[in-house]
Design brief:
This protein has helices at about 5-10, 50-55, and strands spanning about 10-25, 25-30, 60-65, 70-80, 85, 90, 95-105, 105-110, 110-115, 120-125, 130-135, 135-140, 145-150, 150, 155-160, 160-165. With about 170 residues, the protein is mainly β.
Length: about 170
């Protein structure tokens, strides 16, 4: 399932703290792949369809468990104001995978724990601002928070527990 933001409109995935999604196939459980925001973080560069149909995709209080070697948690491409809150991702390849272009990402109160790859992966992404707050990012074999290639200009990391990442198991 690809979440095409311009087609489905504003999206909130709410688990109420009790929902578990078992990802038994390859790829992300929730791929926000077709966001069309190509502007900067400047308000004038955000097109009207982004404000009306794509703004602030929100995932809250879900657990994602990987049950496939290539299963991932969340993937985002082309989003404006993606907000991930109280999310748990474990036993996946990557917890949160940001690609191509995203703007103003908020990751708060999340548990990215015991993943084969990276907890929060900035993968060749053009991203102006990302805030990671009060998260537990531990036991991710590829690293806790990793930025490779791309153009990431501002990552704020506050009050997080980053423990025992990049350890072989």
């Amino acid at each position: 399932m690809v979440i095409d933001l311009d087609k489905v409109g504003v999206v909130s995935l709410l688990g109420d703290g009790v929902a578990t999604v078992v990802m038994a196939g390859p790829g992300p459980a929730f791929p926000f792949r077709r966001g069309t925001h190509e502007g900067t973080a400047q308000p004038a560069s955000v097109k009207e369809n982004v404000w009306k149909r794509q703004r602030t995709p929100f995932v809250d209080a879900l657990e994602i468990v990987g049950a496939h070697a290539e299963a991932c948690g969340i993937e985002a491409t082309g989003t404006m104001q993606l907000t991930l809150s109280r999310l748990t991702v474990r036993k996946a390849l990557h917890g949160i995978h940001l690609t191509r272009r995203n703007r103003n990402v908020l990751i708060e109160n999340c548990h990215l724990y015991d993943n084969r790859g990276i907890g929060v992966y900035y993968d060749d992404v053009n991203l102006h601002q990302s805030n990671i707050t009060a998260c537990h990012i531990s036991y991710n074999r590829g690293g806790g928070i990793v930025s490779r290639k791309g153009d990431v200009r501002n990552i704020q990391i506050t009050g997080c527990d980053l423990e025992d990442n990049m350890q072989p198991r």
